[in-house]
From TrEMBL:
First-listed, main subcellular location of the protein, grouped into a coarse class: membrane
Protein name: Cytochrome b/b6 domain-containing protein
The keyword Cell membrane belongs to this UniProt entry's keyword annotation: yes
Taxonomy, superkingdom: Bacteria
Organism taxonomic ancestry: Bacteria, Pseudomonadati, Pseudomonadota, Alphaproteobacteria, Sphingomonadales
InterPro entries: Cyt_b561_bac/Ni-Hgenase, Cytochrome_b561_oxidase, Di-haem_cyt_TM
Pfam families reported in the protein's UniProt record: Ni_hydr_CYTB
Cellular localization per UniProt: Cell membrane
Keywords, comma-separated and alphabetical: Cell membrane, Electron transport, Heme, Iron, Membrane, Metal-binding, Transmembrane, Transmembrane helix, Transport
Membrane topology type: Multi-pass membrane protein
Amino acid sequence: MTPRFALPARILHWLMAALILAMLLIGAGMLSTTTARYPELLAWHRPIGLGILILALIRLAVRLMHRPPPLPADLPPLQVAAAKGSHYLLYALMIAMPLIGWAMQSAGGYPVTIWKGFVLFPILPHDIVVYGLLRAAHGLLAYAFFLLILGHIGAALFHALVRRDGVFESMAG
């Protein structure tokens, strides 16, 4: 039997995968749609971003409490390093992206409205230069996140379809 991730880790993984995919699509829509749709998309982007931040912190705690299953013993060292490094980056971006977005909105002087009547406190003072830097960082990191996710999906498919070594099944089942 293939060793598996703990059930909370598997649930969080797939829930967050759906939320992050939605977030990337909403973010792409925010860049490509007319300004008439921007406020509606932003109204979805903010609460999903906060949800991802909260779930990422919970997921990190679950990961620290429940060790992941070991990688296959015959996996080449470069692939082991890539797997571990990419997971560190995934966690870093799941936490950093919402924080940068929140900081960006704060620096821009925009209230971070999660839903009507619930507005997050600003985490930075109003500073248009900082806003511009954070906006650029948020955008560039979103592209990097997207590429990292594509690599993650590619690796999962490689393990599932080519190596058939149980790595995919450890999270899928």
